[in-house]
Design brief:
With 442 residues, the protein is of the alpha+beta class. The protein is 46% helix and 16% strand. It has three domains: 46 residues, Up-down Bundle (Transferase, Pyrimidine Nucleoside Phosphorylase, Chain A, domain 3), CATH 1.20.970; 258 residues, 3-Layer(aba) Sandwich (Pyrimidine Nucleoside Phosphorylase, Chain A, domain 2); 88 residues, Pyrimidine nucleoside phosphorylase-like, C-terminal domain (Aldehyde Oxidoreductase, domain 3, Alpha-Beta Complex). The strands form four sheets. Strands 1-4-5-13-14 form a five-stranded mixed β-sheet, sandwiched between helices. Strands 6-9-11-7 form a four-stranded antiparallel β-sheet, with helices on both faces. α5 packs across α14, α9 packs parallel to α10 and α16 runs antiparallel to α17.
Length: 442
Amino acid sequence: MTPVEIIRKKRDGQKLSRHEMEFLIKGYVDGKIPDYQMSSFLMAVYFNKMDFDETTVFTDIMLNSGIIVDLSHVPGIKVDKHSTGGVGDKVSLILAPMVAACGVPVPMISGRGLGHTGGTLDKLESIPGFRTKLNLNEYKSVIKKTNLVMIGQTKEIAPADKKMYALRDVTGTVECIPLIAGSIMSKKLAEGIDALVLDIKTGRGAFMQSKENAIELAKTLIAIGNSFGKKTIGFLTDMSQPLGYAVGNWLEVVESVECMRGKDVPDLMEVTYLLSGAMVMLGGKAKSIEEGISKCKGTIKSGGAYKKFLKMVKRQGGDISFIKDLSKYPKSKFSVEVKSNSAGYVENIDALEVGFVGIMVGAGRMKVDDVIDMKSGILFHKKVCDKVSANETLAVVFADDKIKLDYAAQRLQASIKIGKNIPTQPPLIHASIDENGVREWK
């Protein structure tokens, strides 16, 4: 058997055996198969896909390329949440402490932002001192003591995925459902969970913009999770405009902390409560999602979620004085207000454009080694359906580079459309998905 034989077979649309995929993936991880041959294989998969059996085998091989964490020393049903990514999606920062405060252990391995979507790790690392690079012993210790841990992928967890994803990112093979599913689930299955809730975004600012592709991805992820004995459910949620009012790492931490202190940001908290309620149900602390939502709301009212967040930040090296006093954080050198050119209603906010504006001012990265300005970003004053007056402030953009800031503000203004009539807004939650299929959410 040679790599070329396997590449040709997939190029011609044929099904690969476990032995063939093991030979290729193990050889790549061991350095025996070069990047150019793996790139060729990935492109063949991109065009010819893999069926469900192949995708499951692919996931299993990547999962077993590293360590599968044993969290049996932590009592309770361990539950995590995964989002396919969006603009202003800071749900994990609020959700994880709420669920942990309800008594459900949350071991969360998150990713960085790339392209127009943000990353949980970058948001957490905007907190001075916060460590997302914990070794496995530290990872186990933190969740044992706090019921909650949030880290990045370690070298021991799914190393095949880590190496392969870096290659996919630079070869145009990211947007492929079997490859996405294998990448996500190999990491999630390795982190020590018993159950998983998925937030599959759809809309202009989502990774999967079409509903059809988002549903196909959700079904694949759920089927893989359940086939590995992990109860997995998902929700299709809207990403046609940014979630919440803040876009940018520290700005999103601030909004998250304010929500944990009781501030109501309607769209953000609706999604957060739904996903967290589902996690509490899967964790055995509620009989239904509705009861789980009620319990999570209770952790906000009691301050339990905020206290849990402080405890996690401190355990992972973060300086909690910046959380307790949000005004202590350094500010961007410059800011520009984006104002409405006319009176009416906010008809549309192009989430994809907002994501790229965030990158322009330094809040995101287009390449893995780009340096992020944690202070920079966008604060919206208006959302879709809000009434506006002429010359009223729609958003404020923050950055240290005045030239980039001015151009970014112009681009942001062009991404916000004002109309004369109140628009029809798509539902925030489109559907729930489990092993029994897709159901419209009401």
